[in-house]
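Could you join me in thinking about how sequence relates to backbone shape in a protein? Would you write everything just below, so we can both look at the same thing?
***
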Amino acid sequence: MANWFVTTKKADFNRIAEKFNISPMIARIIRNRDVIEEEEIEQFLYGTLEDLYAPILLKDMEKAAFLIQDKINQKEPIRIIGDYDIDGVCSTYILKKGLQACGARVDTAIPHRIHDGYGINEQLIDKAYEEGIDTIITCDNGIAAYEQIEHANQLGMTVIITDHHEIPFQEKENGEKEYQLPPAAAVIDPKQEGCMYPFSSICGAVVAYKLVQFLVEVMQGEDNVLLELLEFAAIATIGDVMPLLNENRLIVKYGLASIMHTRNIGLRALITVNGLEQKALSPYHIGFVIGPCLNATGRLDSATRALELFDTQEEAKAAIIAGDLKALNDSRKEMTAKGVEEAIHQIEESKMKNDKVLVVYLPECHESLAGIIAGRIREKYGKPAFVLTNGEEGVKGSGRSIEAYHMYEEMTKHKELFTKFGGHKLAAGLSLEEKNVERFHVLMNQTTTLTDDDFIEKIQVDIPMPLRFATKEFTEEISLLEPFGMGNPKPLFAQKAVSFISGRILGQNKNVGKYVVADEQNNRYDMVYFGDIEKLNQYIEERFGLEQKLSLYENRKTTIKLAVCYYPEINEYRGNKNLQIVMKDYQ
């Protein structure tokens, strides 16, 4: 079972509530998100695009913008080299459209996941040189490409890096980190030393957006392009799982509002093909519907297809590409399910299930699915997980981590094993020789400092609150805190001794529970549960007996009482709006 913790951060909630015209409970939730100062609270509740940080605060921003301005004025050809995931595609599109708005001669190149691997490489640089490209601008990659940038410099090319990943470092004997920046003409990355940007947890597309924003200002370009490009910064922020705090919340909030009326023909086609045209888009729709379609093309085909979708001006062509992307994603889902099944079998049938860091080798798995499968394995076992596959040149893999395990730093301890690696705290990518697979498995477990406590799921409860306080009015007030996502989760509440009166199992896969529950005053509420129904029923049977479980689903009297962790939401169906309680966990 998960451990529940009630967040008990202190503040004068009544004073905050009065000053900002909110309820004390909303004031308490905001404080739980570590939003403390009045200026921060004001921005959290009522912030606008005017509150976004100035691009010039990013180190090397001025240097990069004036370099690009000179290249544009001299009519030098510029090539943008992006990445094949959602952040890379959106970054590439933002830079291309933004530079075009400033009059640049610009084209793009996105590495092929299998043939090129991640990020800029010497082949891409040589190709650009042969084609007469003067300047390369990277986006969502490049910060670890020291040798590649050195090679471009030797060819007399200008390279500007825009990235958001961790800066590579070597650890000295005294434990200090010695960071190594590539020798580019300008490096824009909020994680580098000496950068004054107040919020470093932005994605590559936001870094690209800031460069365009500053360049448009410097060159007096078409600033109406900025609102359209904000949509793609928002999509990438959600898709790259950035925390929805600080300016990320504003980018996503206003970006989603703009997407509802997007003028981008390709994006509109993708929304339509997924049946979302009549919906108020949320981070869920981007993260679990739109985003996977964009990622699928980079996994199973070429990410240039997604870029082509955003670029097209023809509705018929957009509809065809959007349909292809959805079909690719449907295929990806089937292949992923097979890979997950095989990975679980491998873990369960070996001593591996006792490991603190899971390393699964699936030689036949499509290498592009390793990251998704690693994510599913992490979710199932609550442990850091690496999934390795056979690539064209040796073994390639991806890792997904838990909060207590900094994946990139742990890999840095054993960098001699890898032919290539990179990433950040919660995700990483790697390449290594097949002979090092087992050694990698052993070393990652031998040197980890993870303890048993790190694997227990922790649920932060905002307020212990009886169900009767979860009114429609309060639920609507909670919407002030949207958009919800990583770093800004939906507020959670808890109540003990909730009586379960009756229940039904719904859904095509019988994976949704719908219940009528009652509090101690016998007020009744509709409650839904989207978690593991089989596990819930097993728990009820063990705790209350088989007869009670059967009674629950046969509409007979039960004595089942559980403490529930929940959030309220307004369910809209056929124009009717009703309050329902969503159970997150139970004890």
Remarks:
- The domain at 3-7+458-586 is CATH 2.40.50.460 (OB fold (Dihydrolipoamide Acetyltransferase, E2P)).
- The longest strand covers residues 493-506.
- The mean pLDDT is 93.
